[in-house]
Amino acid sequence: MNPLSDSDVSWIQIAQDCQKAANPAGAAEAIAKMSPEGQEHPSVLSLRWELDAQGGNWESGLTLSKQLCSVAPENPQSWLCQACCLNELNRHAEALDMLAAVVDRFPKIPMIAYNLACCACRLERLEEAGKWLNRAVVEGHRLDIKLMALDDPDMLPLLDQVCAL
Fold first, then answer.
1. Per-residue pLDDT, 22
2. Which pLDDT score, from 0 to 100, does residue 27 have?
3. Rounded to whole angstroms, how far apart are CA atoms 155 and 13?
4. Please, are residues 46 and 12 in contact by the beta-carbon 8 Å criterion?
5. Is 95 in contact with 122 (CB distance < 8 Å)?
6. CA separation for the pair 70, 59 (Å, rounded)
7. What is the pLDDT of residue 61?
8. What's the CA gap between 121 and 132, in Å, rounded?
9. pLDDT-flagged residues of the chain (< 70)
10. pLDDT at 23
């Protein structure tokens, strides 16, 4: 992927500032002023995805996350964005299958295993969810995973297991 032009760097900085100021329209306007190549850059696609997620525009976010997976497949965040959209669209089985297909590419990223546990919980596949949760703990920091799971409504079916971590 080519680096952003100086002009596009300026526009993305403006877009990021607008996002931080809770001005999604301003961010979208700045992105629209970027070159077509710049608009396809992974950092810009990520920002556009964040704007869609903040606005609850999950169908658009799913399209962007698929683009991200295509242009930045080595970035685990690309896959997590796609899983997030699928889950928000109540397509939990698709999210689980997609993450399960890439989990071994990212053995040191506990959030992929954690999200697999969430998907499995939503599908009421609790034994599988427990295995993914354990893997997330092994890959990540036990206390961080435990605290996240205790605050996550998706993990409620595994509350006993989470408390035992």
1. 93
2. 94
3. 37
4. no
5. no
6. 17
7. 97
8. 10
9. none
10. 94
CB 60 within 8 A of CB 84: no
pLDDT for res 71: 95
pLDDT confidence of residue 2: 79
Residue 23: CB partners within 8 Å, gap ≥ 6?
none
Q: Provide the residue type at 22 as one letter.
A: A
**Residue 139 CB coordination number (10 Å):** 18
Residue-level pLDDT at 165: 84
Express the helix, strand and coil content of the chain in percent, nearest 5 each: 80, 0, 20
How far is residue 60's CA from residue 14's CA, in Å, rounded to a whole number?
22
Question: How many CB atoms neighbour CB 62 within 10 A?
Answer: 21
Nearest in space to 2 (alpha carbons), one of 30, 38, 34: 38
DSSP string over 76-144: HHHHHHHHHHHHHTT-HHHHHHHHHHHGGG-TT-HHHHHHHHHHHHHTT-HHHHHHHHHHHHHHS-HHH
Predicted confidence at residue 3, as pLDDT, reads: 87
> What gap in Å lies between CA 150 and CA 133, rounded to an integer?
12
